Amino acid sequence: MFAEPAVVKIKEDLLNRVKKITSAGRTPRLVALLIGSDPVSRTYVDLKRRDCADVGIVSDVIDLSLLPKGEESQSKIIDTIKGLNDDKTVTAVIPQMPFDGRISEESVFSTLSPEKDVDGMTPHNLGKLIRKEYDLEKSLLPCTPKGIILLAKHYGLTIDGANVAVIGRSVLVGEPVRKLFQDLDATATCYHSHSSNLNGRIAEADIVVAASGRPPEIYGAAGFRLDSTMVKSGASVFSVGVRKDPSTGKMLFDVDTKSLRGRCSFLTPNTGGVGAMTRACLIQNTVIAAEHQQ
Fold first, then answer.
1. What is the pTM of this model?
2. CATH class of the domain comprising 22-115+276-293
């Protein structure tokens, strides 16, 4: 597995840290909130529970995805989050996005306690990222962006001075990973469907992070998929975006990795790459949260 060496290193470190926390009388506990019905989210939650078990973290899932859309359901979701904030047995909470319109992201993350926010999405934690008041190893940063940076460091990519193209501008991945690269002295820019000369800008990049999550099979001409005709020889490429085709059940990725092999100096696979590091960073953040709360 591509990310396995980095993931194993993180898990070995976390095993020892969890033992210390548990010996002091409190076992780290992560609660995942399923608010939407996205099938990829459900798959990730199952994998995250396995990762938690690997290092001794207790994990639970609260499934709110069957709630109908409306004010009553929004109140129930908010009350659930407030209850988890107050529950001293709960170390960490991750509301699994997307929420399918049941409630706004602003309502969820404005309610969630920043000290239990292990995806780094509360206004408090995002503010610390913007102000550069964070430590890559000790702060609660968004998991996928953090995982991308840790992979880049693990494999010795040159970040200082690099030209980085981030495809997608989401608050979950695109904007935070742009900021993290920028803080490491890269020149990083988020591009999107309204960017002019998108292919020309991608072709100039030393590092490309494909995080649009808009496969052409679903979005047609407005979709995006990175292939060998779009990047310069020797570029580094991170495959991030993925959706499940509702008609076929097939997983659709942002990157055509087959065409890019041999052209890139660094290429993450569609599975076993960024996703594995995202999950490793989630359990790492859970342990960081537990240590802060101690």
1. 0.94
2. alpha beta
